[in-house]
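Researcher: We plan to redesign the surface later, but first we want a full-length starting point. Tokens attached.
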């Protein structure tokens, strides 16, 4: 049975107080549907929205007055600041690989709001540039409402959702969310050079979408026959693919395919992806699964952190007392890469704050631990490489002090000595 076609103005009438509504995130966020809910009169109230938002790509206005609506998400970042300050956002610390299980375990999903490409001749709608949680969650949703958007490309390597699996469809053409490519500087260039010394020809790379990992990947232009398996990719991969650096021919899993859960970039990048048959868009249950990652030979995970302490613990989500991100897929890829045959996990970060007054290599974290010391592998700053995986405590502290900014090395050594003798 084909879904009922409605307009955006009719969407709010489907939402009732007490409902739990899943909203697709990343580039698949149905912005037009969220706008219709936020602008509805009478105002929508009493809804519990749940969404795996992507920092820098997704905003979220939960609408309504007072405390009527709430949002549960797995990242917190400045775009959510107003709702967070108003006490209307619940942040759940979670590895990305476990979000789907969390969603299924914490109650029914009354309505899912998603975005799809228009149906093909067989009545199948591509998830386009973002599979993420959608294929796994839809069977557990009581009602599915899809924004059918011609701007979402019908990728040959993306999952398909049958039109008759939807309850309601709303045809709205709208530009997809975009995210700019970061600009490099002397520090990021130095970090990229050190990262390149760790990556070998034939490796498969994963990278986080923070500024430093993206720029590190952009610096791999001298390599050959690299593969790609990531949770989210950005335009930094395009020159590597077009120049033949990223081919995936040596991958033992998904040979010849560039695998990702979602794509982020600009309209030109989206159009370029849409013309290629060598991209495989896969759900989180595949891209982040330990069984998948640990089976990929020579998988190199390139990610970032805010601070690393001399024990080898890393904080990647809090600035002081402020939650500015989330763990996301970071730990999934750190553990997957270090479990893979020949795999490596790289955490890269500038040695200091932007103004140079604070060291990002610290004696001990005073915030949350995102990566525990038993999972840490390689840490890189502009001053060098610290290979920590096999080192005892004193040796790893020494290795980290050696890649701290020179102005802080003496004080770090003294603090470590005091902690060792006190």
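Model: Full-length starting sequence:
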């Amino acid at each position: 049975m084909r879904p009922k076609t409605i307009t955006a103005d009719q969407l709010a009438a489907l939402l009732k107080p007490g409902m739990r509504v899943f909203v697709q995130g990343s580039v698949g966020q149905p912005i037009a549907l969220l706008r219709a809910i936020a602008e509805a009169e009478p105002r929508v109230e009493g809804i519990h929205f749940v969404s795996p938002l992507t920092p820098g790509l997704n905003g979220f206005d939960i609408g309504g007055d007072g405390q009527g609506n709430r949002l549960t998400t797995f990242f917190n970042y400045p775009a959510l600041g107003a709702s967070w300050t108003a006490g209307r956002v619940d942040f759940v610390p979670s590895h990305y690989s476990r979000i789907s299980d969390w969603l299924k375990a914490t109650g029914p999903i009354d309505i899912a709001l998603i975005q799809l490409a228009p149906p093909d001749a067989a009545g199948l709608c591509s998830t386009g540039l973002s599979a993420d949680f959608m294929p796994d969650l839809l069977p557990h949703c009581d009602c599915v409402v899809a924004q059918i958007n011609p701007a979402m490309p019908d990728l040959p390597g993306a999952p398909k959702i049958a039109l008759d699996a939807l309850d309601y469809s709303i045809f709205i053409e709208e530009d997809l969310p975009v995210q700019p490519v970061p600009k490099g500087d002397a520090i990021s260039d130095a970090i990229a050079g050190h990262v390149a010394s760790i990556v070998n020809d034939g490796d498969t790379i994963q990278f986080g979408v923070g500024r430093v990992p993206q720029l590190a990947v952009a610096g791999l232009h001298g390599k050959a026959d690299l593969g790609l398996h990531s949770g989210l990719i950005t335009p930094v991969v395009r020159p590597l693919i077009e120049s033949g650096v990223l081919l995936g021919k040596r991958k033992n899993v998904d040979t010849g395919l560039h695998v990702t859960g979602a794509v982020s970039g600009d309209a030109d990048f989206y159009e370029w992806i849409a013309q290629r048959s060598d991209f495989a868009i896969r759900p989180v249950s595949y891209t982040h699964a330990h069984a998948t990652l640990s089976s990929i030979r020579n998988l190199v995970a390139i990610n970032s952190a805010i601070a690393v302490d001399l024990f080898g613990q890393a904080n990647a989500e809090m600035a002081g007392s402020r939650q500015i991100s989330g763990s996301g897929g970071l730990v999934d890829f750190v553990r997957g890469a270090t479990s893979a045959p020949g795999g490596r996990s790289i955490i890269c970060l500038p040695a200091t704050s932007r103004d140079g007054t604070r060291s990002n290599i610290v004696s001990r974290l005073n915030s949350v631990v995102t990566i525990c010391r038993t999972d840490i592998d390689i840490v890189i700053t502009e001053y060098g490489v610290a290979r920590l995986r096999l080192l005892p405590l004193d040796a790893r502290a020494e290795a980290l002090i050696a890649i701290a900014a020179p102005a802080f090395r003496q004080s770090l050594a003294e603090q470590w000595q005091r902690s060792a003798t006190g």
